[in-house]
Amino acid sequence: MHVHLVFVAKYRRQIFDLDAIEKLRSYFASVCADFDVELVEMDGECDHVHLLINYPPKTGNIKSGQ
Fold first, then answer.
1. 41 CB contacts (<8 Å, ≥6 apart)?
2. CATH architecture of 2-58
3. CA 3 to chain centre
4. Which residue in 5, 7, 13, 34 is a FRET match for 62, CA 20 to 30 A apart?
5. Does the structure show a pLDDT above 60 at 62?
């Protein structure tokens, strides 16, 4: 199952630069590996980041935002 996640900065403040996006990419890849899901694609702009993840049905719903 593919899931598209978008994380937006509060008040759409422009807080992400290229270095921050690369650090987030590394962090999200690590979290996905912990949950046995695949980070298919990740990109961002100065005020938000997009993630496309793929997880098998056996994983079930991922509890996010906790």
1. 50, 51, 52
2. 2-Layer Sandwich (3.30)
3. 10
4. 13
5. no
Domain ranges of the chain: 2-58
Cβ atoms of 9 and 40 within 8 Å: the answer is no
Question: Tens of pLDDT along 4-39?
Answer: 999 999 999 999 999 999 999 999 999 999 999 999
- Helices (H), ranges, the chain: 18-34
Residue (of 51, 21, 57) closest to 36 by Cα position? 57
Total residue length of the chain: 66
pTM: 0.78
Q: Which residues are bridge partners to 43 per DSSP?
A: 50
